[in-house]
Amino acid sequence: MITIQDLGEQALLAQLQRFSPPDLTGDDAAVLRSPHPDSLVISTDMLVEGVHFSKQTTPGFDVGWRAAAANLSDLAAMGALPLGMTIALGLPGTTPLEWVLSVYKGITACLKPWQTPILGGDVCQSPVRTISITVLGKVPPAKTLYRHSAQAGDWIIATGIHGAARAGLECLLHPDQGQSLDPYHRQAWQTAHQRPDPRLDLVPCLQNLNTRITGMDSSDGLADAVLQICRASQVGAELWTEHLPIPPGLNDWVGQSTAIAWTLYGGEDFELILTLPENIAQTWLQTVRSTLTLPANHCPRPIGRITPNPDVCLLTPDCHRQTLDLKQGFQHFRP
Amino acid sequence: MITIQDLGEQALLAQLQRFSPPDLTGDDAAVLRSPHPDSLVISTDMLVEGVHFSKQTTPGFDVGWRAAAANLSDLAAMGALPLGMTIALGLPGTTPLEWVLSVYKGITACLKPWQTPILGGDVCQSPVRTISITVLGKVPPAKTLYRHSAQAGDWIIATGIHGAARAGLECLLHPDQGQSLDPYHRQAWQTAHQRPDPRLDLVPCLQNLNTRITGMDSSDGLADAVLQICRASQVGAELWTEHLPIPPGLNDWVGQSTAIAWTLYGGEDFELILTLPENIAQTWLQTVRSTLTLPANHCPRPIGRITPNPDVCLLTPDCHRQTLDLKQGFQHFRP
After folding, report:
1. Chain segment A257-296, per-residue pLDDT in tens
2. Interface residue A216 vs chain B (CB under 8 A)
3. Which of A80, A136, A332 sits opposite B125 (nearest CB)?
4. Are B53 and B2 in contact (CB under 8 A)?
5. Does A97 touch chain B (CB under 8 A)?
């Protein structure tokens, strides 16, 4: 097995440059054309072994795919399309070359449908495998999706099911517990965890709308996204329990209470949470269903409504209200 | 002492957002205007505690300053000016908040002369303090500095002295050995190591030239920069020993042989190595000296010439030739 310390920095960089267009690498920085009149959108993420992934349970390909998907999802959440991505890797010298190449293959596969180049990056020594990705995108200024523009009465739309990535993680961590599951569901959930699809497919039909749209991705959970939008827009929300985008089959497997918790707080589904004026939302949902051939799990659907009251509540069919709280979501650094 | 696990992720992010313009943070990504008709330039770097800095010997402010300077230097090396910077931090929960804020203060201080905003970023848990910076810049397409355009006969220009950062590191690691030094030199070298100045000041007067210019920064050493330019341009070079940009006072302190080695291979001076046609180089050097008020250590000077012969040699006044080799430079991952 060849490790990267066998290879050395220059030879490793030469291997990684093969994943980038030749005209974009080999200098101090990558150069690309300005996408005028669009605005630039930039976002960055760091992933650390033992925190965001385990080298034992996550193949390098999936580490790369998920890292790329998370960054592309941040672009989709701004209504933007990708221009390119830089990758910085911190690696122990004993890291197998094979693993590093697998990460790059995963990133490349995730970028492929969007024809997005890797713009080069950096490799350096670190005691822990670390990946830092920065993605650059473009959006027409008037079509940028912010979090602060939701208004009372807007419909809240989830672009697909939520909780599937959490369920998939459970299946991967405890394969024995998934034995009773429909193999179709198990596979779908594991794929949701290992190879999430960023919702860039919806960006063009969001850009076609001439209306106020609020948006955020649900990487930190559906509830977190609704709470962040409400906080930024100084409004509240009610989510309708019977319309929660619970993955088909999940109630039967873990019971309704856990299924709702995973749907609200599971995270890493990389769908979008949008708010639109009600009449436009209805038309848009019909247009999306008729023009895009979407798998059922990735179909946008209304899940609630923005309210003037600043609370974010879950509303049961019998009008019981439960207030949602960010503290139930994922937070770094807490011991 | 408040640690970041006392604070939690959301409160830490709120503290760090104060370093960014309010309109650029709080969403999934930062949005900025496209700099049309300029091209975009993007570069990324990762710094790891114990590899690139020591929390014992490098204050957070200097860690931040040097990280920002290294990235700005990559832009200068492309002939570009900065648009903004993203910062991803991987941190153990026990990291003092004070240290994180110092890093941000150092970055902010380094960016200030260039009015460059921090475009937000990411914080996450890591067993080792890690900083990943991505810088975005702009350059008129015809003014972009590449490595591959050097031609035989060009003058090689260093934009300032080299080896000062290496000497400053020595002074910091062994303060007792620096006692005999002129305090002015000691201070200048330590500053060169702790607070290097990226050479963005030269970018406007490089953009004013209508000629072929080749360029790279000398972050990995003067010799490395010349070798990389020669490799990319398929040419060679001779460097003139008596014109090497050795820091004043260094010969006296460490002897000529070590002074030359530090000048060629020391690295981290973050100056530029340029090649220009001889007649233009002469005029440009005069223009720079007469229009910019530069400290002597930061004055551009000719150090050699590009040759058709592919070797890179050091030429002594008595015409002795010594071939330079990249292997003497710094390489990651070698055990």
Report:
1. 999 999 999 999 999 999 999 999 999 999 999 999 999 9
2. yes
3. A332
4. no
5. no
